[in-house]
Amino acid sequence: MSDATLSRFDSNRRYTYADYLNWTNDERWELVDGVPYAMSPAPSRKHQEVLGELSRQFANYLVGKPCRSYIAPFDVRLFAEDKSDEQIVNVVQPDLTVVCDDSKLDDRGCKGTPDLVVEILSPATGKQDRWLKYKLYERVGVKEYWIVDPLLQTVEVFILDDERYILSGVFGNKDMLRVTLFEDLEIDLRLVFG
């Protein structure tokens, strides 16, 4: 938990999505097992460029298909099926989320497990993305998880296999990255990191 989290929240309390909806300041937060984590205040220009290009390539491919892609801010409520706002204790805002089941979508975002999640590393959230959220996404059953490093210009792809992530590969700025979730989609990383 960051210092900002400790100063604002009771470290002995488990917060819920209902609490989260009432937080009205300019900061963005995520909840993991009821613990609030501050998100990066403002993404860097490079972060935005990488996210914009990834989003464009996914959105173009998904036109006319049942899956949809969303960029943050977009609330993803995990372990939330059949639960009220007061019972939900896991809310994340991945940089890019792909959902293939319309029944999980509502006006607030996704209520349930998305099919693919992309997190773009920043100095403030790298540890959370590489460990805390990695374990959360694995536990909830996200089929494909990407960790994008804009500085190193790499994408680590993790595929869920028998309830555990396996590293499918690490791809660089000259690669075409085949999306496991979709047989005929390749992401051109030259454009993403260009």
Automatic annotation (TrEMBL):
Residues 18-189 form the Putative restriction endonuclease domain. Gene3D superfamilies: tt1808, chain A. InterPro entries: Nuclease_put_TT1808, Restrct_endonuc-II-like, Uma2. PANTHER family: GLR1098 PROTEIN, RESTRICTION ENDONUCLEASE DOMAIN-CONTAINING PROTEIN-RELATED. This is Putative restriction endonuclease domain-containing protein.
